């Protein structure tokens, strides 16, 4: 036991002792017994503590430490026997300085002897050698790769740069059903999280890590990055057409975010690059909704009619992520990119022009993930090409039906491209819409070819095929 | 974007592209847009002039004259007849940046064969993914005195 006279009493403890009328030498005797200063401060702060009670407690502890007999008060003994607590355990608790009535309350509260034993052993170890000896530290011997020191490059410290050593092992099949990150060491007994995608081919894209970084780096804020004050009143039919287009983008943004949100929990943790990128894609879709709602409601107009929604359901009903991705990230994103080009082409002010140009950056990443995922999928699943055709057969057919039914969107585009509702303007708008449709279908086919799926060109739905089979008419337009 | 720099350079030339490269590489506004990794060919077929621009991370890493094949062996190349390049650059100079009818996107849409072209549908999308970076690059030509051949 330490020499009590040589111990310093912390100022805050001394202040509490003074307020309670407890002599400082009594506090020093408590510290010498090994009680932490904070514990003494806590005890002194409790109601009803007097110098006499403190003296009695400290003296009893000193007597016990000197080898004196520990006596269990009869009331405590009764409680301990009733709950089958060994007397030796109660004595160890008393030796640690626990008050008899406190121990009785803990026993009656249902604390089991084995639970108490672990806690008491920890406290005894702390008293003998300090808190450090109470640490288990066996977790430090975890057999993960250690000593990793990745340095930032000219892009900073990116996600893909962390794929070094064994951390770069991205298995074709992820064997763990829990939320354990890749590279960590599993422990037994953790309940599965209910993922359904454990195979790399079902979600992987080599560019996912880069796209995540790109999305973070190139983020933009509709609230302040768009020069909203450049907007000026537009003719009513133009503002209504813009509002209808914005309504469509808002719907597509929310729906696409829902699709990502639905699939993320299905993806196991072995492929975090994809999960990270898709998180940013969900954010991009939220921003798509945000910026077009803001555009619709900031220039004297508002929102328009709801879309029929057949195509939306075709995407959200996908039963495999690859199907959802091919339809959402290649087919639907190619169409959205085409609409954004119309938006940029018909922009009436700096605000609209910038909205569409920034939006194209976001859609460009979605397309890039979609193409790279399909490319990876096809490279690993060479027997499933027909399946991709079936996904697209369904999506293109439903899209064609939707396009036929969505008269408001079609007319809004014609009015925007023609510049109004006059006969010549409508005629001009129809011709230009054909031009833009040819562009986006051409780009859609080109992206599928880049993904290793060039034969789709010959199997397009007739409503799309016509756009790539009429070069003479296209040139004339 | 201010117009405080008064470097003189002739379009098209490596010096012209390098003058813009020097401006953006020293411009926090350019870095603020975010990283961009792309190789971009420049084609001016009627002058038979070809260049290759390398965008890397937060800077334009390299500018050089190239063969036509090299310019096409990029992520995508920007191709216009000389007079249209001149019109775009003059418009940028007059407005401090491209007006609504002279952005890269608008020109791309209005050109029958596109401004941005590629042999690969995936790599061409770099034109969209990084379009604000490329626009900022060409808009920065407003900060030099361009003479034309």
List keywords for this structure.
heterodimer; A: 477 residues; mainly alpha; Ribonucleotide Reductase, subunit A; 2 domains; B: 149 residues; Nonspecific Lipid-transfer Protein, Chain A; 5-stranded mixed beta sheet; two-stranded parallel sheet; 8 helices
Q: Could you say what the CATH topology of chain B is called?
A: Nonspecific Lipid-transfer Protein, Chain A
* CATH fold label of the largest domain in chain A: Ribonucleotide Reductase, subunit A
Number of domains of chain B: 1
SS-based class of chain B:
alpha/beta
What structural category do the secondary elements of chain A indicate? mainly alpha
Radius of gyration of CA atoms of chain A, rounded to a whole number: 36 Å
Average pLDDT reading of chain B: 95
List the secondary-structure elements of chain A in sequence, H or E.
HHHHHHHHHHHHHHHHHHHH
Largest sheet of chain A: none
How many angstroms separate the termini of chain A? 99 Å
Q: What does this entry look like structurally?
A:
The complex is a heterodimer of chains A (477) and B (149). With 477 residues, chain A is mostly helical. Chain A folds into two domains: 4-134, no CATH class; 200-476, Ribonucleotide Reductase, subunit A, CATH 1.10.620. Chain A is built from 20 helices and no strands. Chain A has helices at residues 11-20, 24-32, 37-44, 51-65, 74-82, 87-95, 100-108, 113-129, 208-217, 222-225, 236-263, 272-296, 310-316, 321-345, 350-380, 385-405, 407-418, 423-450, 462-468, 471-476. The N and C termini of chain A lie far apart (99 Å). In chain A, 37% of the residues are buried. The mean pLDDT of chain A is 91. The model of chain B has no long low-confidence stretch (mean pLDDT 95). In chain B, the strands form two sheets. Chain B has a five-stranded mixed β-sheet. Chain B has a two-stranded parallel ribbon with strand order 1-7. In chain B, a hairpin with a 2-residue loop joins strand 3 and strand 4 (59-65). By secondary structure, chain B is α/β, with parallel strands linked by helices. In chain B, 41% of the residues lie in helices and 26% in strands. Chain B has a single domain (7-141), classed as SCP2 sterol-binding domain (Nonspecific Lipid-transfer Protein, Chain A). At the A-B interface, helix 9, helix 14, helix 15 and helix 18 of A face helix 5, helix 6, helix 7 and helix 8 of B.
């Amino acid at each position: 036991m330490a020499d009590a006279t040589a111990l310093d009493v912390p100022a805050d403890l001394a202040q509490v002792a003074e307020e309670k009328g407890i002599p400082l030498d009594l506090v020093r005797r408590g510290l010498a017994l090994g009680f932490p200063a904070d514990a003494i401060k806590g005890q002194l702060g409790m109601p009803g503590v007097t110098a006499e009670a403190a003296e009695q407690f400290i003296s009893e502890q000193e007597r016990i430490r000197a080898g004196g007999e520990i006596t269990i008060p009869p009331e405590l003994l009764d409680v301990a026997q009733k709950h089958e607590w060994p007397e030796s355990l109660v004595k160890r608790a008393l030796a640690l300085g626990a008050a008899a009535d406190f121990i009785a309350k803990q026993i009656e509260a249902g604390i089991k002897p084995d639970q108490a034993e672990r806690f008491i052993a920890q406290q005894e170890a702390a008293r003998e050698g300090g808190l450090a000896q109470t640490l288990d530290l066996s977790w430090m011997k975890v057999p993960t790769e250690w000593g990793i020191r990745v340095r930032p490059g000219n892009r900073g410290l990116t996600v893909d740069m962390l794929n070094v050593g064994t951390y770069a092992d991205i298995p074709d099949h992820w064997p763990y059903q829990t939320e354990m990150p890749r590279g960590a060491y599993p422990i037994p007994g953790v309940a599965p999280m209910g993922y359904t995608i454990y195979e790399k081919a079902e979600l992987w894209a080599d560019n996912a890590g880069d796209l995540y970084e790109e999305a973070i780096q190139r983020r933009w804020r509709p609230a302040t990055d768009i020069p909203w004050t450049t907007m000026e009143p537009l003719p009513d039919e133009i503002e209504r057409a813009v509002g209808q287009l914005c309504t469509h983008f808002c719907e597509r943004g929310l729906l696409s975010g829902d699709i990502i949100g639905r699939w993320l929990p299905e993806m196991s943790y072995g492929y975090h690059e994809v999960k990270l990128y898709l998180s940013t894609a969900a954010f991009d879709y939220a921003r798509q909704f945000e910026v077009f709602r803001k555009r619709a409601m900031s220039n004297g107009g508002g929102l328009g009619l709801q879309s029929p929604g057949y195509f939306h359901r075709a995407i959200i009903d996908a039963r495999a992520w690859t199907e959802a991705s091919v339809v959402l990230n290649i087919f639907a994103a190619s169409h959205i990119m085409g609409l954004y080009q119309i938006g940029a082409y018909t922009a009436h002010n700096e605000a609209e022009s910038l909205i569409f140009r920034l939006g194209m950056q976001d859609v460009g990443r979605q397309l890039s993930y979609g193409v790279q995922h399909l490319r990876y999928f096809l490279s690993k699943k060479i027997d499933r090409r027909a399946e991709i055709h079936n996904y697209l057969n369904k999506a293109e057919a439903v899209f064609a039906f939707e396009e036929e039914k969505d008269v408001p969107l079609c007319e809004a585009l014609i009015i925007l491209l023609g510049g109004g509702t006059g006969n010549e303007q409508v005629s001009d708008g129809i011709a230009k819409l054909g031009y833009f449709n040819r562009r986006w279908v051409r780009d859609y086919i080109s992206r599928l070819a880049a993904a290793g799926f060039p034969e789709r060109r010959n199997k397009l739905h007739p409503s799309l095929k016509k756009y790539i089979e009429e070069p003479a008419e296209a040139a004339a337009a | 974007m201010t117009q405080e720099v008064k470097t003189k350079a002739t379009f098209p030339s490596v010096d012209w592209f390098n003058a813009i490269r020097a401006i953006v590489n020293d411009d926090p506004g350019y870095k603020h847009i975010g990283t961009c990794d792309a190789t971009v060919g420049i084609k001016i077929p009627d002058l038979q002039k070809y260049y290759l621009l390398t965008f890397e991370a937060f800077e334009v890493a390299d500018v050089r004259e190239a063969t036509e094949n090299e310019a096409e062996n990029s992520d995508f190349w920007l191709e216009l007849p000389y007079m249209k390049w001149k019109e775009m650059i003059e418009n940028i100079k007059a407005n401090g940046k491209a007006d609504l009818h002279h952005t890269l996107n608008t020109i791309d849409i209005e050109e029958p064969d596109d401004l941005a072209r590629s042999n690969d549908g995936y790599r061409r999308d770099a034109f969209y993914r990084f379009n604000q970076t490329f626009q900022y690059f060409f808009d920065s030509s407003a900060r030099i005195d361009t003479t034309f051949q």
